[in-house]
Design brief:
It is built from 16 helices and 17 strands. The protein is of the alpha+beta class.
Length: 509
């Protein structure tokens, strides 16, 4: 038998392999192959990029929801609100005691008119909708045009061509106290702002001059919007007006001295009615008073300028400034929904002796808003704990169901409890034997505070009238800041306004 010759496969033809022959496998890159390493590296880079983008997007969404969503949704340039307004009747803005401060009236032909039942009383906080949007009408625009009506009924309303009712904004403002504050201030220019020290709720915020948002014709709007600076009725003096605090600033000077001097109780001073500033000038006690021998408590109660000029010269400026900045000097007060200006305290180690003395009595370059001037009194009343002020209490649907509620928030304890107790005694002495005794006799509550008469024109004795303080009654407290522009003395002008608000508040408890 002849042996068969093996046949070599022809290139391009089908190959046959016996079971004993090794099978050919496609070439795979080894673990150490450079091409494989490069591919893995590129894949890892792409993966990391996608992870980074996802994290950035997640952070943005969280920030948007927590911080920026209201700002974007309430922006007048956001056209979505115009779409909502076609389907939702704008909700009401209410006082804390349930009164309508802003509402929408619908005429027979479906024409909607925004109405403000109390005219100019709440114009600076509630705002208006007739010429753009201001105040809460602007900052709460999203809430007012959002409806929590049952989706089924909303669909029915759509088919019937009806609008659904918007949600309501409930403020912290008391109608009764606001009316009393406005009546007490009368036709004078100024501001009254009151707050619960324990919660931060603003219960009254009145600013004059004001305007009636119901009467904003094009001509009237043109007139008031063209008013400049401090003369404008659009200016909310409570949060935007900047004034020298006068003797009310002695609360800061006294607190800084107490903090920096363990022997502050040993302070003694003989007032001769004036003190030299070192640059050829003199600072006098108000009205030419000569107070004689004083300790710290009496100097505070009598509001002795020469004593506090002496105290100011002994202070460490950096520590004094740190105290002021802990109470929101030189930075914005964290109150939402309202425009505000920044209080100023600019002293440094290079400040002249005369300027330090002026600052120690609340003159010179020291400037405050009435709201900022309220913060220290409220903090002292609350034993050193500063609460964040706010004006929107909650959002409710058309039926009164609470949808969201503002939580109280502490901004820290810039004043130690023992310091607060000491300051409470000083402020109580002002009422018992100092410049605010009308709050002592015949009142059911316990009052404490500081008056001020702040000169604001160089070479003139004209002064703004101030009072800041608080009362305690039936376990509750209310703090207040009163400013009357060009009013004269705080004791004669500002204290009686505060007393009327305190009386009304106590009657309601």
């Amino acid at each position: 038998m002849k042996q068969m010759k093996s046949v070599k496969p022809v290139r391009g033809s089908m190959e046959y392999e016996s079971d004993n022959m090794p099978k050919k496998r496609p070439n795979k890159p080894s673990k150490g192959d450079p091409a494989r390493k490069q591919a893995n590296k590129e894949m890892a880079v792409v993966t990391y990029i996608f992870i980074a983008l996802f994290m950035v997007l997640s952070v943005y969404m969280i920030v948007f929801v927590i911080r920026d969503s209201d700002q974007v949704l309430n922006n007048p340039a956001n056209k979505r609100s115009e779409i909502w307004a076609k389907h939702v009747t704008r909700g009401n803005i209410l006082s804390s005691d349930g009164y309508e401060l802003a509402k929408t009236e619908v005429g027979k032909k479906g024409k909607e008119t925004r109405v403000y039942p109390y005219g100019s009383l709440f114009a600076h906080v509630v705002g208006q909708m007739n010429h753009g949007a201001t105040g809460l009408e602007s900052s709460e625009n999203y809430e007012l045009l959002n409806s929590n009506l049952n989706p089924f009924y909303r669909i029915v309303n759509e088919f019937e061509g009806k609008k659904s009712p918007g949600n309501n904004v409930v403020t912290t403002l008391s109608l009764k106290l606001s009316q009393v504050a406005s009546e007490a201030l009368g036709s004078r220019r100024g501001s009254v702002v009151a707050m619960e020290p324990k919660t931060g709720k603003i219960v009254t915020m009145v600013s004059k001059p004001s305007y009636d948002p119901n009467e904003l014709t094009d001509e009237k709007w043109k007139q008031i919007s063209s008013s400049s600076g401090d003369d404008s009725p659009l200016l909310n003096r409570a949060t935007q007006g900047l004034y020298p605090p006068g003797s009310t600033f002695k609360m800061y000077t006294a607190l800084a001295y107490i903090r920096q001097n363990a022997d502050y109780e040993e302070f003694r001073h003989k007032c001769k009615g004036s003190i030299k500033t070192g640059d050829g000038g003199k600072i006098r006690c108000y009205g030419g008073a000569v107070h004689g021998r004083l300790d710290l408590t009496t100097a505070f109660a009598k509001s002795c300028n020469t004593a506090f000029c002496k105290i100011g010269q002994k202070l460490n400026i950096a520590g004094w400034r740190n105290l002021c900045e802990s109470m929101y000097f030189n930075k914005a007060i964290p109150i939402d929904k309202l425009p505000k200006n920044i209080a100023k305290f600019q002293l440094s180690s290079s400040t002249s002796k005369g300027d330090v003395m002026q600052a120690s009595i609340g003159q010179g370059d020291v400037l405050v808003t009435p709201l900022q001037n309220l913060l220290l009194a409220a903090t002292i009343a609350n034993n050193g704990n500063l609460m964040k002020p706010y004006v929107v209490d909650k959002i409710v649907d058309f039926d009164g169901k609470i949808l969201s509620e503002t939580s109280t928030k502490s901004l820290g304890t810039p004043v130690a409890k023992e310091e607060a107790k000491t300051m409470q005694k000083l402020m109580r002495a002002t009422v018992q034997k100092g410049t605010a005794t009308s709050l002592y006799y015949g009142t059911p509550y316990k009052a404490a505070g500081k008056t001020g008469s702040a000169e604001y024109k160089a070479g003139s004795s004209d002064s703004h009238a101030w009072f800041v303080g608080y009362v305690t009654y039936k376990g509750k407290k209310l703090a207040i800041s009163v400013l009357v522009e060009g009013g004269g003395t705080g004791g004669a002008v500002a204290v009686p306004i505060a007393k009327r608000v305190f009386d009304a508040w106590a009657e309601g408890l």
